[in-house]
Fold DNA polymerase IV.
Amino acid sequence: MEEEPKSRKIIHVDMDAFYASVEQLDNPELRGKPVAVGGGSERGVVSAASYEARKYGVRSAMAGGLARRLCPELIFVKTHFDRYREISAQIRQIFYEYTDLVEPLSLDEAYLDVSDNKKGNPSASLIAKEIRAKIKEKTGLNASAGISVNKFIAKIASDINKPNGQKTIGPEDVIPFLEALDIRKFYGVGKVTAEKMYQIGIFTGNDLKTKSLEFLEEKFGKSGKHYYNVVRGIHNSPVKPDRIRKSLGAERTFNENISSEVFMLERLENIAEEIERRLKKSNVAGKTVTLKIKYSDFTLKTRSKTLSYYIRSKEVILETAKELLYQEKMENSVRLLGITLANLNTEDKKERVTDKKEIVVQLKFEF
């Protein structure tokens, strides 16, 4: 079993309804109204929802048609990622005033290790309060924060007093807090895992703690050790300021199901072009191309192909995706297509990038 390291002071900062809040900030007419970013069409997907919209049950990743039925007054706005990135950069500059140990998880959330901070402030709670106040002053947006001894608990804590609040779980409170916590609140326990835990009598952290390591590994495989440790307050992962991107992808949900391979290839070309643009902007390349297909009955299939060389051109990405598309007969009409490039050269940028098409490749299929 892992030994608990020297206690850290970790802050998890999470912006409140970030994309929607930015849209409300930039357009005063939207303030106080239910807003959904993206998902304007019946088949589109909501990227973010304002708190006014969430009261009606509107959530991110929800189909636009369902969101509209839940909230007939819902206002749909287009995404403006350049604007979100601009504000995210301003927020990160505030983080760096306190520590260089900043691990961004996305545009709207990050971990900070303030155990030894630039301000010499021994109180992580006061630092979190200062950071949230500076974010509000500089951007006009609200942020919430969780403060604790490790990343796992800090992330759970940041959700407790949302929006525009913070929660500190001190070292002496960690075990009682985890024992009383609903198992669904444990970060990393999704709907399927929660249902499986319910079936074996695990409803709270205390229930989880009664199970042996052997039992949890038998039921949940490698994740069993993770569950065994975290409920005891053991989570040794440090804040990683040089967090490495592992994959890059894009996908499209169609307004109408498509069954023609010609139409599918047109959509895949657009997706490949978007990935190429993002790869070049990030100056990375990858070896593994994964094609994602969601059928009209919501069945999801993925097919992957790993090359022996790095690529980033639209032509080679599209050619590989096309080969994967033809690998299996279509089972139904298609509502979503996506392409992801993984095995990136982020760890060794010196690896050669090539677009040669005649090199023999290794196939790997995932269903």
User: Anything to note?
Assistant: Residues 1-5, 349-367 have pLDDT under 50 and may be disordered. The chain has four domains: 10-16+82-173, 18-80, 174-230, 247-364.
